[in-house]
Amino acid sequence: MKLEMGHIYIKDIQFASESKIEDGILYVSEEEVKKVALEDEKIKSVSFDIARPGESVRITPVKDVIEPRVKVEGKGGIFPGVIAKVDTVGSGKTYALKGMAVVTAGRIVGFQEGIIDMTGPGAEYTPFSQTNNLVMVCEPVDDIKQHDYEKAVRFAGFRVAVYLGELARNLTPDETKVYETCTIKEGFEKYPDLPRVAYVQMLQSQGLLHDTYVYGVDAKKTLSTIINPTEVMDGAIVSGNCVAPCDKVTTYHHFHNPVIEDCYKHHGKDINFMGVILTNENVFLADKERPSDMVAKLAEWMGLDGVLITEEGYGNPDTDLMMNCRKVEKKGVKVVL
Question: Catalytic pick from 138, 242, 263, 325?
Answer without folding.
Answer: 242
